Amino acid sequence: MSYAIIETGGKQLRVEASRFYDIERLPVEAEEKVSIDKVLFVQHNGDVHIGQPLVAGATVEGTVLRQFRGRKVLVYKMRPKKKTRKKRGHRQEITQLMIDSINLNGTVLASAETTAEVVIAEKILDPAPESAPESVPESVPESAPAETTVEVASTEVASTPTEAAVEAPADPGAETPADPGTEAPAETAEAETQEQ
Questions:
Q1: Are 60 and 21 in contact (CB under 8 A)?
Q2: Where are the domains of the chain?
Q3: Which of 51, 66, 89, 99 has the fewest CB atoms nearer than 10 Å to its CB?
Q4: Which helix (H) or strand (E) holds 60?
């Protein structure tokens, strides 16, 4: 995999062939070719070229896909206790750039065509079936239907508020019967005092 690090619009960007990137606005029209000479780093199959500050003879070729404006950013300034407030919006101008090729000293290291060929070759060499039928577990007989449903036991829950009100005791002060295996704390305290 080949990639390069370029500088455009005051920012550094890692780019690969046959991918598109949103960068600061370039003064070109849509569908025009662009050549970027500010290449800081190039890597191709383990071979690394580091610029000081730029790599000599390295260029990145691209095609402008479209010019558009980014999302609105609100800028709000306020001075406390002074009743001074300013609210402004800003939309950045953006160019969408498709990287066609990465070149070094006139040699094309990576291009959109070679990247597409590599992807096709990988699919041919590693044919992973996308819709392979799942294997049937050994415990399921072959005569069983393909789709089986599993019933899950669940606890009963009141489905409406009126059912919940019917199940609740009418007198809020009335004691609810305790579980037979547990004693109430007050009863245990009384039993201990009688033993002494």
A1: no
A2: 3-125
A3: 89
A4: strand 58-79
